[in-house]
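Example record

The entry below shows one chain as it appears in the dataset: sequence first, then structure tokens.
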Amino acid sequence: MSNNGKMIRKKDLNFWQRIYIPEILKGLRLTIAQIFRPKMTTRYPEERFNPPSSFRGRPVLVEEHGVERCVACGLCSRVCPALAIEVQAAETELEKERYPVKFEINMVRCIFCGFCEEVCPEEAIVMSNEYELVFTSQEEAIFGKGKLLMPAEKLKERLEFLRQHR
């Protein structure tokens, strides 16, 4: 502020900046450039999208030798920002001390952020390459261990990608 109470600006806008014509022309130029680019349309049901190993599809539990890797530590449910994961643990006679009696993910709430995958110490929950999710009711969207378990062989690419980028 100056002595007489008026605001002093460091830089006033010039005439062209005040009428926004250059900015409108820049936007039109960008739009017209997009018109002449090659199209990226695919015929979806016939042509399937094959996602790269970095793709984050629906989360799944890794199963090895008929047993899930999960030790029911509960880190995934604590880190989930959407509160979509529920884990209940129990004791087991196997070499690992605990296993999840109940492991559910509410896929309606899941935001596919991948935090559960990042925090898992056992690489037991990973983001798969599956992207087609269809539900007819809220109850169908709750995936239990039956829908979540997937053999480690199917997730080989994703697990290798995770090991390379950690």
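Notes for this example: Strands lie at 59-64, 67-68, 85-91, 98-106, 125-127, 142-143, 149-151. The helical segments are 15-19, 21-35, 75-79, 115-119, 145-148, 156-164.
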